């Protein structure tokens, strides 16, 4: 379109206006104006009169509409509205509908969800809206939603666009077009096929292409979805896109093939598949060559069918030799008229009168419906003479009929299954000569029969979808859920219902219906459920089932697993198998690894298919042995682990005898299948050496590996980034007397560079900036912080109107705020403890199309639901600010660590190195994690992380949680020597004499557990440098006995426990406490 892409005025071009160009629902005289021309609407038709003003129906309600006929299909790019001239009448919000025929209207939606358009705030200003996606239609209908509360509906309207040209072809379900676009099959690097289609049938073949060896590629509709199928020796579904494509509206398809890759686009959604086969340029349109498959032929219209910009419909029109017409093909699009009605809300109903007694002597009601809901009333009527009521409704997606009288069920029938699948289903209810039949989808569905003892007939009215409001005088009762969905092809007593007359209120009555359209939306296509979450839906909402996916949240976006063994350790876990998700909410799947936390470093171990010492078995005529290692983790998982770890290593040992290494042997490691590496454990890359060559202690100084000297073995740890080891190539294994064996251990990595990546902000005006954050539909943000200040912005990113921000608003509150076009929203978490206590606190925020959530530490999650049918895209364009804002106000002072956005860790430390007011790193972790050290273990700070020093504890392990035990045989013992203050002062004569008295301990505690069957037995003996001693033993009576002498001038004392039988082989615990001159002993069995 010209005119700055907006297009030309379309309504103005209709002037002098034709009588059929404008229509209004109002049948009472109303005025309408188009750019100064005043029109008068009488009985739906337009005539001229003088003056100015605008359209303003006599009744202002949501049943009014203004319709424009543009005369031909036109590309509409913009709409402009203005209030009625010189009045208080204007629209504040409205809906737009488009149609090719004046029937079967389609609502225009922004972002696939927003139906309403912003209108005017006064009668004078023009508000123009440029359509995000141009609409192609002949008819436009505007429906008022809200208007000035102090006035009425008032409107002056203009639309903009440009002419639209097209070539169409129609197929009747038994016809097709065949194109041979090249005389011989040939290789082409790129092919593009594009078309539009419309149909009322939910199945049928659109395109069929032939390939080699009987292979073919099919593009076909199946249950309203578009499937791309590869057929041949085996059939495979390559892609599935779209939904509800049988709505008799135009849908756009593009297939773009580049070498072995094919991009399939349906409307605005694209999926990429790989098709390595070449397909001949034979193209069947509308059917497949096999006549037996005529049921899969297409019934509907195609438009603008192009192959590499060649108009194929034009070829067929002019009878080109490359095109063959098969069957009845017409080059126009016949539009079947099918008036549907939508029941969108809780107060929707349709009431139709039942005429005089049936000419067939019974009851016959038929209709089609489609819905996502499992339950809802479809129709109800009263029985005339029995005083009963009949209900036809959905229950658990089955069709059920009940007839009640006096509060009890006289009859119940059920038919059909899974009727909430969004497909059209036909229902027929007939009662004739004492026989009642309920059928769904004819022979393909289900049928239920009954022979009631009473006649089933209709009193006077039939209600579809629901009942009038309670205060209405109509007799209608609905004890079931309301129906939300669409109906069409209604028939009473075998006579079709004229829904246009119903719309004009000439027949029956209705409330809150959308006439001449089906407003069903598939909220699961495309699915907003991520990571394999299963999408289910109702009429107004969708739900994601995240079971067994490893992810959580309303859209299965956030991982439930930590990103490394290091993170599990700091949650207080000990060694074991854990699922780790290296990129959080990113595309890499969680993986099961072993986390070894017995060392100061936390090791992550990834196994492969052979970690045992394996002897090389020679094969005749083969002087080389190839070994490939398959890891339990996928490629992306392995590379991410190696990349984010501080250190990785892998044992590689080669036991050899007369089997030389380089240049006969090498290994492959790194990404993909790996690159050949000629260095070995402990040596430098590309050195062709082993560790002994680097250290100069090989058995033969002329060789850099012991195996090269036909001697012994070499062994070493590989620690470079060429890990993991993918393959081994072992040569020189066929010489007489040669022997070889190898072992490749598991990949072992420790450290998490992302987990400890931190920055310290020491000024309120300082910040770090990064590129714009892109989280249009799903955004998760997580980080740790610690501070002593009361407020500060952690993160902010702005757009033209949209924004996202996380801040500490007070010492006990964190706020997550954002705006995606629906107005600012906030999610708040309040803490009962101070958050500015200089300890690490974790923040996790998520925003998706359904809700926003915020969690701080382990406090309950706070959530905020997204507005129904509102804007869903978060559109940002500024830099991402960390620790501050663009205005340099309310900046954060403190530490931020492990900041991740949608699974990607921002390198705060690297950016902090070049940013004033920000320092890389943030020491001081024991204040937060020191409590993990148990049993008097001491927390020791490390630059990144901490560890527990268990040397002063009788426990070991990563958190000093494992008891230290030993088994003694007769005559064995362990001796510990401790330095006492006296010895220290004796060795340091320059120390003041007061050090002795200052370091005297007022008491001691001794505790131990034992299990034995021997008595007597000495358990513990302690002697001091002052000739005092303490002995703990089991005497000959199996009693515990404590002997001690605290002062050499006093005789030894003996304490005996009252507990006997301690040498019974069970575990007992003993605690000895000394306080000044008193001693106590306690014995109890250990459970």
TrEMBL record:
Protein name: Contactin associated protein like 3
Domain F5/8 type C positions: 10-162
Ranges where the Laminin G domain occurs: 168-333, 339-518, 757-922, 966-1087
Signal sequence range: 1-21
Source species of the chain: Nothobranchius furzeri
Family membership noted in the UniProt record: Belongs to the neurexin family.
Keywords: Disulfide bond, EGF-like domain, Membrane, Repeat, Signal, Transmembrane, Transmembrane helix
Membrane topology of the entry: Single-pass type I membrane protein
Matching PANTHER family: CONTACTIN-ASSOCIATED PROTEIN-LIKE 4, PIKACHURIN-LIKE PROTEIN
């Amino acid at each position: 379109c010209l005119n700055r892409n907006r297009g030309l005025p379309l309504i103005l071009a209709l002037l002098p206006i034709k009588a059929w160009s404008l229509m209004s629902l109002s049948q009472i005289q109303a005025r309408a104006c188009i750019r100064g021309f005043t029109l008068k609407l009488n009985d739906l038709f337009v005539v001229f009169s003088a003056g100015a003003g605008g359209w303003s129906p006599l009744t202002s309600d949501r049943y009014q509409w203004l319709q424009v006929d543009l005369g031909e299909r036109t590309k509409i790019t913009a709409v402009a509205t203005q209030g009625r001239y010189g009045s208080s009448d204007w629209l504040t919000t409205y809906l737009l509908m488009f149609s090719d025929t004046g029937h079967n209207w389609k609502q225009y939606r922004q972002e696939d969800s927003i139906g309403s358009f912003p209108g005017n705030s006064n009668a004078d200003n023009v508000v123009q809206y440029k359509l995000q996606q141009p609409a192609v239609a002949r008819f436009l209908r505007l429906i008022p939603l809200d208007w000035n509360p102090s006035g009425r509906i008032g409107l002056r309207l203009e639309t903009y666009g440009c002419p639209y040209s097209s070539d169409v072809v129609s197929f009747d379900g038994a016809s097709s077009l065949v194109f041979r676009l090249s005389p011989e099959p040939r290789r082409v690097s790129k092919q593009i096929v594009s078309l539009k289609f419309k149909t009322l049938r939910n199945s049928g073949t659109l395109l069929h292409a032939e390939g080699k060896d009987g292979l073919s590629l099919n593009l076909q509709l199946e249950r309203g979805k578009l499937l791309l199928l590869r057929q041949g020796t085996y059939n495979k579904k390559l892609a599935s896109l779209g939904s509800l494509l049988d709505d008799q509206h135009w849908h756009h398809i593009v297939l773009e093939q580049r070498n072995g890759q094919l991009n399939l686009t349906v409307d605005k959604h694209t999926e990429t598949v790989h098709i390595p086969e070449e397909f001949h340029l034979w193209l069947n349109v509308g059917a497949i060559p096999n006549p037996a498959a005529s049921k899969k032929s297409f019934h509907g219209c195609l438009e603008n069918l192009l192959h590499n910009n060649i108009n194929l419909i034009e070829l067929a029109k002019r009878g080109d030799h490359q095109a063959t017409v098969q069957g009845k093909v017409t080059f126009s699009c016949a539009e079947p008229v099918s008036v549907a009605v939508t029941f969108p809300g809780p107060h929707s109903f349709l009431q139709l009168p039942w005429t005089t007694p049936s000419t067939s002597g019974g009851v016959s009601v038929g209709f089609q419906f489609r819905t996502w809901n499992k339950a809802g009333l479809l129709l109800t009527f009263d029985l005339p003479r029995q005083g009963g009521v009949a209900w036809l409704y959905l229950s658990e997606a089955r069709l059920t009929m009940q007839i009640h009288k006096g509060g009890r069920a006289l009859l119940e029938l059920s038919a059909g299954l899974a009727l909430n699948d969004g497909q059209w289903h036909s229902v027929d209810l007939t009662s004739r000569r004492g026989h009642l039949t309920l059928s769904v989808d004819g022979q393909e569905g289900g049928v239920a029969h009954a022979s009631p003892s009473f006649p089933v007939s209709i009193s006077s009215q039939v209600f579809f979808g629901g009942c009038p409001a309670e205060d209405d005088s109509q007799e209608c009762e609905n004890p079931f859920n309301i129906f939300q969905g669409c109906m069409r092809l209604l028939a009473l007593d075998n006579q079709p219902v004229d829904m246009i007359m119903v719309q004009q209120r000439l027949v029956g009555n209705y409330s809150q219906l959308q006439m001449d359209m089906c407003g069903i939306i598939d909220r699961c296509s495309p699915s907003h459920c991520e990571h394999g979450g299963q999408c289910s839906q109702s009429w107004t909402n969708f739900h994601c089932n995240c079971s067994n996916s490893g992810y959580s949240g309303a859209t299965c976006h956030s991982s439930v697993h930590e990103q490394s063994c290091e993170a599990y350790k700091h949650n207080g876990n000990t060694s074991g198998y854990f699922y780790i998700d290296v990129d959080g909410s990113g595309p890499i799947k969680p993986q099961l690894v072993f986390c070894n936390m017995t060392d100061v470093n936390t090791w992550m171990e990834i196994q492969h298919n052979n970690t045992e010492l394996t002897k090389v078995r020679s094969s005749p005529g083969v002087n080389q042995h190839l070994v490939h290692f398959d890891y339990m983790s996928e490629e992306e998982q392995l590379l991410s682990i190696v990349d984010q770890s501080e250190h990785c290593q892998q044992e590689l040992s080669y036991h050899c005898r007369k089997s030389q290494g380089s240049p006969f042997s090498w290994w492959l490691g790194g990404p993909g299948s790996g690159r050949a590496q000629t260095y070995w454990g402990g040596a430098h890359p590309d050195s062709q050496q082993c560790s002994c060559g680097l250290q100069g202690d090989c058995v033969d100084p002329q060789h850099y590996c012991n195996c090269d000297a036909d001697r012994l073995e070499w062994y070493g740890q590989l620690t470079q980034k060429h890990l993991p080891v993918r393959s081994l190539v072992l040569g020189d294994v066929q010489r007489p007397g040669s022997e070889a064996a190898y072992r490749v251990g598991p990949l072992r990595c420790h450290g998490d560079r992302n987990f400890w990546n931190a920055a310290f902000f020491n000024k309120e005006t300082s910040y770090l900036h990064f590129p714009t954050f892109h989280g249009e539909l799903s955004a998760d943000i997580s980080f740790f912080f610690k501070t002593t200040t009361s407020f500060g912005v952690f993160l902010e990113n702005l757009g033209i109107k949209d924004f996202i921000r996380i801040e500490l608003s007070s010492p006990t509150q964190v706020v997550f705020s954002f705006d995606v076009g629906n107005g600012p929203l906030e999610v708040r978490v309040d803490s009962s403890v101070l958050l500015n206590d200089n300890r690490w606190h974790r923040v996790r925020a998520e925003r998706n199309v359904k809700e926003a959530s915020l969690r701080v530490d382990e406090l309950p999650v706070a959530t905020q639901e997204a507005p129904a049918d509102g804007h869903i895209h978060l559109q940002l364009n500024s830099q991402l600010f960390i620790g501050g804002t663009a205005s340099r106000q309310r900046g954060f002072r403190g530490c931020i660590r492990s900041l991740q956005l949608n699974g990607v860790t921002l390198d705060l430390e690297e950016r902090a190195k070049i940013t004033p007011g920000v320092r890389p790193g943030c020491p001081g972790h024991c204040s937060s994690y020191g409590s993990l050290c148990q049993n008097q273990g001491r927390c020791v700070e490390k630059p990144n992380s901490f560890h527990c020093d268990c040397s002063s504890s009788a426990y070991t392990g990563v958190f000093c949680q494992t008891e230290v035990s030993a088994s003694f045989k007769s005559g064995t013992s362990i001796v510990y020597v401790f330095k006492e203050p006296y010895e220290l002062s004796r060795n340091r004569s320059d120390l003041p004499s007061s050090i002795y008295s200052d370091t005297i301990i007022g008491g001691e505690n001794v505790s131990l557990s034992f299990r034995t069957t021997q008595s007597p037995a000495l358990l513990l003996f302690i002697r001091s440098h002052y000739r005092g001693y303490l002995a703990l033993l089991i005497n000959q009576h199996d009693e515990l006995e404590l002997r001690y002498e605290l002062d050499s001038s006093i005789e030894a004392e003996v304490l005996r426990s009252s507990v006997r039988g301690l040498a019974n082989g069970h575990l007992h615990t003993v605690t000895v406490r000394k306080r000044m001159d008193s001693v106590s002993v306690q014995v109890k069995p250990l459970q």
